[in-house]
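Data deposition worksheet. Section B asks for the primary sequence of the deposited chain exactly as it was used as input, without tags or linkers unless they were present during the calculation. Section C holds the resulting structure in token form. Section D is free text for depositor observations; keep each observation to a single sentence. Incomplete worksheets are returned to the depositor.
Section A, Depositor: J.P.
Section B:
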Amino acid sequence: MFIPTEDDIQTAIEIAQREIPEAVGYRVLIKPLPVAAGFKADDMDKYEALAAAGFDLNNKDEAERETKGSDRGIVCSVGPGAYKGDHLEAREPWVSEGDIAVFHRYVGHTVQIPEGSENTYRICNDEDVFGRYKGNLSE
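Section C:
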């Protein structure tokens, strides 16, 4: 059993504040694109259309959440077990590092580097990636 010392804890905090984690297992690490890159939450037409569709939009925050729909982002890391499970029946990975992917806005865990900043990453399951755009930024 490993019992961390106070120095170990301080070192771990420093590492977590400056380094971007790698995806492990069947996870995918994605850098979300800004909402402004294609979505305008304060656009009254969208707000009114959502209200007409039955959404209870009492304020702009709710309108913003509903207009996001799906998130888009850049794949930064793909875990070694991603797209290899029997449940996916994939012969090759759906995404690779540098792909621009589409994923549901509520999936996974958000990590901020450093903590409290707006520099966020999302760690999600491999099956939560819905699609990808043609082209790869790492090529």
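Section D:
The CA atoms of residues 108 and 124 lie 4 Å apart.
DSSP finds three helices and six strands in the chain.
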